[in-house]
Amino acid sequence: MDQKDTEMNVKGVSSSTSGVVVQVREKKGPLRAAIPYMPFPVAVICLFLNTFVPGLGTFISAFTVLCGARTDLPDRHMCCVFWLNIAAAFIQILTAIVMVGWIMSIFWGMDMVILASYKDQGVPQQL
């Protein structure tokens, strides 16, 4: 048994030093890519609102797009991104009855906070 563990460790070491670089890119759908990069305090407020009133924080975040907040959809017009966020808010509100929208709303708010913290820290985002 020790011999198998040793062989696996040797194989793991040899494969990790082979110089292979793996890059992972997250493919985002249009609704997920429309989440704006907001200032951190605004993102936390939207998360708080989404936690207690599903869709409200997402609805408010849609207006930050009109105020110039950046999104991962640079090729789309500002109004299109605004309406994508409004659609996400209404999906959250309508499906909150069966708890799906409420859970989606909380995760949406968490994504807003994560994107805001990346923006504040200056961490480059991959498109």
Automatic annotation (TrEMBL):
Q: Which GO terms describe its cellular component?
A: membrane
Q: Which domain of life is it from?
A: Eukaryota
Pfam families associated with the record:
Spec3
Q: What is its main location?
A: membrane
* Membrane topology label: Multi-pass membrane protein
> Which residue ranges does UniProt annotate as crossing the membrane?
40-69, 81-108
State the compartments where it is located. Membrane
Indicate what this protein is called per its UniProt record.
Stum, mechanosensory transduction mediator homolog
Organism expressing this protein natively: Alosa alosa
> Upper lineage ranks?
Eukaryota, Metazoa, Chordata, Craniata, Vertebrata
